[in-house]
Amino acid sequence: MALEEHATLELRDYLRVLRRRKWIIAVTMLLCMGAALAMAFVEKPIYAADARVLLKRRFVETLFVPTANGQSTIDAERQRNNEIQVMKSPEVRQDVEKELGRPADDVEFTAVEGTDVVAISARSSNPKRAAETVNTFADTYITVRRDLAVNELLEAGTQIQVEIDKIDQKIAELDASLVATPPLPPPEEGEPAPIDEREVSKSRLEGQRLSFLQQLDRIETGAVVEQQGGANLLARATAPAKPVNQDPVRNGLGGLAIGVVLAVALAFLREYLDDTIKTKDDLESATGLTVVGLIPSLPEWKNRDATQLISMAQSGSPAAEAYRTVRTSVEFLGLDQPIGSLQVTSAVAGEGKTTTLANLATTFARAGQRVIVLCCDMRRPRIHEFFGLTNRVGFTSVLLGDAPIADAIQRVPGELPIGLVASGPRPPNPAELLASHRAVGVIEALDRRCDLLLIDSPPVLPVTDALVIAGLVDGVLLVGNSGSTTKRGVRRAVELLRQVDAPLIGAILNGVRSKSEYAYVYGDDRYYKQEKKAGQAAERRNGSRRTRERTRASR
After folding, report:
1. Which of 310, 281, 275 is nearest to 296 (CA)?
2. How many CA atoms lie within 13 A of 16 on its CB side?
3. Alpha-carbon Rg of the chain, whole angstroms?
4. Hey, which residues does 509 pair with through a beta bridge?
5. Helices 76-88 & 90-100, crossing angle to 10 degrees?
């Protein structure tokens, strides 16, 4: 059922769409999987190598970075990002390329979440080259980082030594001043000793000098520590054995996943864009009519020129049973108001209206009704071909006065009470001829001669003939074909028929391809097969009996 016609969609509606579009889904999935697998074998192999570097807190940070409650106030994530920027720096890349003797491959640096570890990875068509590039980057970064840390410490030591030298100079100047100046006289009894500010300054400077000496000692110790490495290489890269882009299983599963999503999307897009009638619900929703029959698709009907009467040739088949269902529905519809004349038409040509009418004529005749088939399709008459009759004399012959009604009615060969009035010679103006009083009188006369008058008319949309006839009958059946009839077409056909107050009594869906769409109406064909098998067995028994009788007679 078309998606746009649902107020609310249920799970079975989605499943019905998927089942209906199963070939689109299957082909799309296979194409995606095939493309993914082809890429796995055709694509140039790419190898990936990676190494892990553990970042350590630099010694200089323990000297100059403030702490809170014993913890450093440095943002760890920011520090990792800073180190990654060092790894990406032109200086590091230049040193790497100098070490490698070639341009370095593209390298990625990724901080491992929740740790102080940075992953260094590279891709190359050569596995050894990828591993070599990664390891060289890691080693070069560790060397550069160590040199930077040592240089920072040495610069700090130099600055502290400068400060110490300044303090030594100030102390020397104070000592010289103290030597050149006589000492202060001793205090009188009961008075405090005089304080020389130069001694106080000297003592303060000596305390600062001691503090700087201690820092200088720690810096010299830190320089030794940093020279031994401020970052560790946790895992060196090794040459990978398998390429990362040639994994058939992974590619196949990835292609399958993409294929499933794409296939389902295409299936629903195709369903949304598809305007054709597929099921009984589609036809009822589009026309507002009750579907009185679902005729299964038959191989014989793939040829549009086929004129086989299934209801006569295979009276026990599911298709014949479907026509009997239509007959029963029409009979029930005529309980309150008898239906003496019935028009069978369609929206456009090629939807099986003439085939439907011919088989309905046979079905009604088998029920004991006297049936006359009238062909009002004067543009493309075919109904006479179904019964093996001619079109030399027919409806137009009677309208033009070339033949009486009795001579125009051809008896259908066989035991069934069916008469046929062919269309006759083609007139230049069929619509005007059908609208004439003479045509109305002939149709009424034919109606009085039978129990049921079945009228085959042209399709509704191409010409106006069907609309003219619709005003002269007791009932109109609209025929659609599964897979070719469009919803827009049948809507327009119903709209035109209602404008002329046509007595629409129902619709028939031809060419139903799936048993699930019609089995609930008239069963599957197992009963027909059993009946056919029983008939064949009976024929064999009868043949054997006749052979024995001839043998005895010859003796």
Report:
1. 310
2. 16
3. 50
4. 294, 480
5. 50
What's the sign of the alpha-carbon dihedral 539, 545, 546, 547?
positive
Phi, psi of 71 (to 5 degrees): -110, 140
Q: Give the whole-angstrom CA distance, residue 295 versus residue 518.
A: 8
Residue 520: φ, ψ to 5° = -70, -10
Q: Please state the length of the chain.
A: 555
- Backbone phi and psi for residue 421, each to the nearest 5 degrees, phi listed first: -110, 105
**What does the CA dihedral 440, 443, 446, 448 come to, rounded to 10 degrees?**
-60
**Between 76-88 and 127-180, two packed helices, what is the crossing angle to 10 degrees?**
110
- Topology of the domain covering 48-180+198-235: Alpha-Beta Plaits (3.30.70)
The token pair at 453 is 């008058």
Contact (CB, 8 A) for 223 and 150 = yes
CB 450 within 8 A of CB 370: yes
Place of tokens 């099986």: 352
Query: Can you give 433-480 as a three-state secondary structure string?
Result: HHCCHHHHHHHHHHHHCCCEEEEECCCCCCCCHHHHHHCCCCEEEEEE
Sheet of 504-512, strands arranged across: 291-296, 504-512, 475-481, 341-346, 452-456, 371-375, 418-421, 409-411
Reading the block at residue 156, the tokens are 């700090």
Nearest to 147 by CA among 90, 64, 230: 230
Looking at per-residue pLDDT, the higher value among 320 and 173 belongs to: 320
pLDDT of residue 103: 87
Per residue in 12-52, pLDDT (tens digit) is 777 877 877 788 888 888 888 888 878 777 778 888 999 99
- Cα(289)–Cα(385) distance, integer angstroms: 30
Q: What is the mean pLDDT of residues 304-310?
A: 66
Strands 47-55 and 475-481: unpaired
Give the distance, in angstroms, between the CA of residue 398 and the centroid of all CA atoms in the same chain. Answer: 60
Give the C-alpha separation, 433 to 348, whole Å.
Answer: 21
Q: Where are the beta strands (DSSP E) in 241-331?
A: 291-296
Helix (H) or strand (E) holding 150: helix 127-180
Which helix (H) or strand (E) is 326 found in, with range?
Answer: helix 318-333
184 touches 196 (CB < 8 A): yes
C-alpha neighbours within 13 Å on the C-beta side of residue 127:
10
CATH architecture of residue range(s) 286-524: 3-Layer(aba) Sandwich (3.40)
Tokens of 228: 């031994």
Q: Name the least confident of 129-133, 204-208, 279-283, 533-537.
A: 533-537
Tell me the residue type at 477: L
Whole-number pLDDT of residue 505:
94
Nearest to 383 by CA among 435, 331, 427, 418: 418
Phi, psi of 293 (to 5 degrees): -165, 140
Residue 434 CB partners (closer than 8 Å, separation 6+): 376, 378, 465, 468, 469
Phi and psi, residue 52, nearest 5°: -120, 130
pTM over 0.70: no
The percent of residues in the chain predicted with pLDDT above 90, rounded, is 31
pLDDT in tens, 145-166: 777 777 777 787 788 888 888 8
